[in-house]
Amino acid sequence: MSMNSQGRPTVAATAATSAIPDTFTGNRALQIEEALLFEVGRHDVTGVDLDEPADFAPRLGKLARKLPIDLPGLSEPETMRHYVRLSQKNYSIDSGLYPLGSCTMKHNPRLNERMARLPGIGDVHPLQPLSTVKGAVELMTELSRWLIEMTGMTSVALSPKAGAHGELCGMMAIKAAIAAKGETRNIVLVPESAHGTNPATAALIGFKVVTVPARPDGTVDVAAVKALLSPDVAAIMLTNPNTCGLFERDVVEIAAAIHAAGAYFYCDGANFNAIVGKAKVGELGVDAMHINLHKTFSTPHGGGGPGAGPVVLSARLAAFAPLPFIRIEADGPVLVETEEALRPGETPFGRMTAFHGQMGMFVRALSYMLSHGSDGLQQASEDAVLNANYVRAGLRDLMSQPSGDRTCMHEVLFDDTFLEGTGVTTLDFAKAMIDEGYHPMTMYFPLVVHGAMLIEPTESESKASLDLFIATLRDLVMKAKAGELERFQQAPRFAPRRRLDETRAARSPKLKWEKPEPWVEAAAAE
Amino acid sequence: MTVYFTKDHEWVRLEGDSALVGITDYAQSQLGDVVYVELPEVGKTFAKGDEAAVVESVKAASDVYAPVSGLVIAVNAKLADAPGTINEAAEGDGWFMKLTLTEPGELENLLDETAYKAFVETL
Amino acid sequence: MRYLPHSDTDRQAMLAQIGVGSIDDLFADIPRDLRVHGLDLPKAAGEMSVERTLGRLSAQNVAASSVPFFVGAGAYKHHVPATVDHLIQRSEFLTSYTPYQPEITQGTLQVLFEFQTQIAHLTGMEVANASMYDGSTATVEAVLMAHRLTKRNKAVLSGGLHPHYRAVVESLSPMAGDTVTSLPADPRGTEDILAAIDATTSCVVVQSPSVYGHLIDLAPIAAKAHEVGALLIAVFTEVVSLGLIEPPGAQGADIVVGEGQSIGNALSFGGPYVGLFATRQKFVRQMPGRLCGETVDAEGRRGFVLTLSTREQHIRRDKATSNICTNSGLCALAFTIHMTLLGETGLARLARINHANAVKLAESLSALKGVSLLNDSFFNEFTIRLPGDAADLVEKLAAKGVLAGVPVSRLEPGKSELADLLLVASTEVNTDEDRAAFVAALAEVLA
Would you call B36 and A2 a contact, using CB atoms and an 8 Å cutoff? Predict the structure, then answer.
């Protein structure tokens, strides 16, 4: 069998019993236990006042709903309390350092939120007459200008909805470009250390994924790439800076080899935050790169999205950008939505999504860019890299780095060698951070490093914040080495929940609320 | 009773003309709690090295390769409801499938128990 | 720069601690000749300045709330309660990551569990995922899932499917090596889709209400699909319709996908929205996207986790069911809160108001000379035939301060037989005065 991804402990550790019984309510002061909506809501309660329409003759044919839906409601105060209490069970950037490597959890300015709610932005329809949305098209044009200047590329496809969708867009453009040359190329090269989205994207549109081995420090070797090149190679998907937090030193040479073989260079832009204003990917030989606006440009992650993944394209791919796109004409920008509106040389491969992309994210990102300006963007990259190296410097004597102590970009990678013999795993270590008030770093990624811990502090953290973070991690390492095993294995002890039984969740999935059997309800009522 | 092993951590136990196939105890210990197994259809034929099944823990999914060529004549249906059997008895009740061997000669290239144990020691 | 905490003194102290002389030393891996020294972009700007710049752009657009507004075709103007926007801006929801650490993200996880339950109930299906990007990408994911399940690769798309959704499927499918049969545009809702289903069909994709507004009886299509071993994918773009019409699950759909923007989410010029995705329990392992499941913690207390993750790209890589990672978490939250406020009572009433408003408008418009209604059935959107080019008339109406709808030619350009068709939507936001203004303005421009 293929041991392609290592297992790790997922069973809940046994709980330590306390002498004092828990509270009557199960609440723990500010942590209030909150039942499910389906347990507290009622079918005849609503928190929205609407007037019943006057009698009219329905036009539903024979398709009127026959059975109730089973959607309990809550009044407005109950709704407020239900969701506020739930919110209080979440960690967030606004409450503390969120060092998830590769995720760029930076400060989310509230000015951006205000801008997204301007009536001419938040309250315009994608299909109202173009004469009534000139400002919206201009905003997209301005965002494009910034993205193109920052990357040194030729054009940008704005419509992809998130990073992985951007990858798909870029790879579809590459597939279209290859087809336009009358070629068929079926192989995409992906380094071992890549995000899972890279191979998943390539496979989605029929490419065969071939893994490029990494050098011991996690970077890609030109020779290893050259050895895999053939007329059947369509592209390489490379993350730069890579997922080990290192800039691919040989990127230009890799690009040249790829191009010489007639293939394309896709760059995963997840780590763009390290190099904005420091290097232009267009000059590195990149043909396509998505930009996660929800990472580099501060649009809030929202507990899992929405994101936005515009793709910048080189001159070799620009013509294949999907619909819709913006064409700059003499009297201003024009939103080109359909094939009928195309001009010679414009050969879009199709469409990624309904409408025009994540306008709500575009405006937030542009608000961030305008606020920073060219000087602030460069400073942000420098501070992001400074902060990661400061964390590295503060921990290098106690924690182990997979390829020795060397300068990193915006994130620093440790492995679990320093935990050897302690009985503490990377997972335990991360969970102990929760008790100390921190969100854990990215764990067990990249896959090429054993027990990986990837820390990305971002530029949003002050020196004082980093000093306390470093001191906390140093203390935890000392405690692990001192044999305080329980502290780690029992962690987290102070979070809203102890470790959760993921095995049980996966073995018998319970994916929605089910009304309890009558006897259960009766027993509960007693 | 003869048991053979592969470096991909499958085992094959000969039972007359047919053979049981599963993953080794070492493999299950590396995977952690098994939560799901995807087994092939009875009647399917495999060449040695083909992807024959998938075994999943919470955070890992691994392909199980056919250690020898053969025709699937039975699968361990019990695993659907009790995937934990693989953790409890990987080399016994946690078997995956029963094959009729089409190339019995392939067995000669597999490891015996001693050789497999020595191989695992090197990992 | 107000977002960057370090003073220059801090920076110097930190560089010293790291043991380098200057910040450039930290960028030494970037080849010297490729280092950028300054971007050709404006310098940093304060809040007031940014507000002025973006406010100017905003002011060039006509906001839906500011005019009689009847534009739909896949995105709908609804009233979103103030509570929704307040709650989704709570720091703990807004600035939290995907809930990979369940002990400190139970808030997001419980919301997802509630969301999945609401979607399953609304659609009449057994399981729903934690959201997709939008209705169009949910549709193409459903097609790919159907191909995996049936081990066939031909999708049949109804002519009533939103043309953008159709384009998304048509763009991806050939690259994935799959086939698509798209039926011609069906403005009258009379196509014979049964004839297009055969033993090579993997799935048939039908939107109801269709992009032209017709309510489609899915049961016979499901029956025919199942007869040949194919799946029915039911699509909707107006989720409010499910408050009043028979859910796709009750009509035999195997996968139900749709756009959830109408509940809780602003129009925002097309995104971000929230894709809804539901199916049968037996298909759950082929679903794309995240799933939240119930379990217990080490003290035996109920809790929630992301589960069945081995389907996903971060574990399964090139064998994943989808490449999706980030989805529409915050939009799903907005949906759940708004739906909680509505409840069964509120949603049904909201749906009746929408339907009543559309019926009234359809009657008034079709009473005008030269204007005819194409629909027998509809929910809150319908198609009218105008005595002239619909796009021209929409521009003339816009000049009179009425945003009248979507000319079909915007979605289906270059088809002269569709050039005089207009899609008109009416929701709870429209007043009697709005409708009167529309009817009067149309009468004027037709005169």
Answer: no
A507 vs B10: CB contact, 8 Å cut-off? no
What is the spatial distance between Cα C105 and Cα C100, in angstroms, rounded to a whole number? 8
Rounded to whole angstroms, the Cα distance separating B110 from B95 reads 18
Domain covering A112-367 assigned CATH 3.40.50.620 in the classification: no
CATH homologous superfamily of domain C66-79+344-446? Aspartate Aminotransferase, domain 1 (3.90.1150.10)
Cross-chain CB nearest to B83 (options A1, A6, A507): A507
CB C282 within 8 A of CB C253: no
DSSP-derived 3-state class of residue B53: strand
> Poorest-confidence range of A195-199, A257-261, A379-383?
A195-199
Fold of domain A380-506: Aspartate Aminotransferase, domain 1 (3.90.1150)
Q: Tens of pLDDT along C318-375?
A: 889 999 999 999 999 999 999 999 999 999 999 999 999 999 999 999 999 999 999 9
So what's the pLDDT on residue A517?
A: 78
Give, for A115, the enclosing helix (H) or strand (E).
helix A110-116
pLDDT tier, A5 (very low <50, low <70, confident <90, very high otherwise) = very low
Q: How confident is residue A14, by pLDDT bands cut at 50, 70 and 90?
A: low
Note the pLDDT tens digit of each residue in A35-71: 999 999 999 999 999 999 999 999 999 999 999 999 9
Domains of chain B: 3-103 (2.40.50.100)
Question: Looking at chain C, which residues constitute the CATH 3.90.1150.10 domain(s)?
Answer: 66-79+344-446
| Token pair recorded at residue C40 | 């050709």
Mean of the per-residue pLDDT values for chain A?
94
Q: What is the pLDDT of residues C111-169, one digit of tens each?
A: 999 999 999 999 999 999 999 999 999 999 999 999 999 999 999 999 999 999 999 99
A167 vs A310: CA distance, rounded Å: 9
Chain B: residue whose CA lies nearest to A501: B58
Residue contact C315–B36, C-beta within 8 A: no
Provide the chain C residues 294-353 that lie in CB contact (below 8 A) with chain A.
294-301, 303-305, 307-310, 312-320, 322-331, 333, 336-337, 339-350, 352-353
Q: Does A17 touch chain B (CB under 8 A)?
A: no
Measure in Å the smallest separation between the Cα of B64 and chain A Cα atoms: 4
Chains that touch A (3 or more CB pairs under 8 A): B, C
- Residue C435, pLDDT > 80, answer yes
Say which residues have a Cβ less than 8 Å from residue A322's Cβ, sequence separation at least 6: A157, A159, A169, A172, A173, A348, A349, A350, A351, A352, C171
The predicted complex's ipTM stands at 0.98
Closest chain A C-alpha to B114 CA, distance in angstroms: 19
Global pTM value: 0.96
Mean pLDDT, chain C, integer:
97
Q: What are the extents of the domains in chain A? A: 112-367, 380-506
The token duo for B119 is 């191989």
Residue B30 is given by DSSP the state: H
Question: How many angstroms separate the CA atoms of C68 and C403, rounded?
Answer: 6
| CB pairs < 8 Å spanning A and C | 737
**Residue C80 and residue C335: Cα distance in Å, rounded?**
10
When the candidates are 3.40.50.300, 3.40.50.150, 3.20.20.70, 3.40.640.10, the CATH number that belongs to C82-338 is 3.40.640.10
Contact B59/C316, CB-based, under 8 Å?
no
Q: Answer whether B59 sits within 8 Å of A7, measured CB to CB.
A: yes
- pLDDT band at A497, cuts 50/70/90? very high
Stretch(es) of chain C classified as CATH 3.40.640.10: 82-338
* pLDDT tens figures, C399-420: 999 999 999 999 999 999 999 9
Which whole-number Å values give the CA distances from A23 to A28, A32, A85, A491, in the listed order?
Answer: 7, 11, 18, 21
CB C311 within 8 A of CB C287: yes
Chain C residues touching chain B at CB-CB below 8 Å = 285, 309-310, 315-316, 319
